[in-house]
Specification:
Rossmann fold, 14 helices, alpha/beta, about 15% strand, 7-stranded parallel β-sheet, about 40% helix, 6-stranded parallel β-sheet
Length: about 350
Amino acid sequence: MENKLHIVHMVSSFQGGGLEHFVIRLARDQILMGHFVSIVSLHDGPLFQQAQELDIDSHVLSSNSKIKRFILCYQFFSSKPLEIIHAHNPTVLHYATIGKIVSGAKLIMTDHAQTRGIARIPSAIERRLTDRVIAVSEHTAKDSSRFGFTGEIEVIHNGVDFKPADISRESVRLNLGLDDRPLVINVAGLLPVKAQDILIHAVALLRDSGTKMMLLIAGDGPEHEKLVNLCGELDLSREWVRFLGFRSDIPDLLNASDIFALVSRNEGLPISILEAMSHGLPIVATPAGGVKELVCDGKHGIIVPFDDASKIADAIKKLIMDKTLCTYYGENGRKHAEDNFSFRTMSMKYMEVYRNLMDY
């Protein structure tokens, strides 16, 4: 009989980003395999309720006091038997190492390349206590090696489920009050690193050139007010840019859209691009992090320079004007995603890492 593992995933928050969705999906998959799985977060967020509705044992170590949070961390990890602690990003490694010391579990850290600066640099003891480091892309693996991790850094690319939309393209557009103009969608947290400001400037250029379109931005975050104000400064009404906030119906929104744009300044291996490709959308993206491991320029979409609104506008206009090219990129991307980035394949690779550490 296969050994069942007690696994804890650690994240910095339950906000509605790609990483948090990924962890919830991975935890749910592992539960369905028969393992005992919990998610522990340092901060609350809208996905906490979703995790609980999926019967995932979920906890928030919420406190303004670091000392109180350390106490909560100690209490949690000393309260149950554990074999695996899986930290997602170096930002939670400090607390995960406490868990390892308290429980004696094996500690794995996946670097999703979503943090930068001093907070991303683990201490010597954190590096020493981490049993295995996983990176979501080759680019991220090279980046992680610069922060003192010894030994081999294994690459496990992110994966996605290939699910059809629940409702039709026409119904989604009708529900949002949209006409038949071309829709460009961006799915990302509203953060400086995601560069939605540059994308909005590109929309202004498209408007000025007489190109009919609309940008949908699905996501929330601290840059919301700043981005809304930027639209006001550029005289871009809701007919040009629509902020949708946190959404749980991303597959439906992708199905209603024509082009996917992600012009980030840094990425790991963006799940949002994989989801867009699985729905047959052509991609406009910057070569951030592992993006070039997903998107081949001229085959799955168009790679554009960082922070270049003009080139982004040109790429979007090219796709709007050439439906045949859109179909070509979209079909190639769908096949590429389905053949190489399935969620189940990725999930089984993580289980193999766990079992190798446990000598099962």
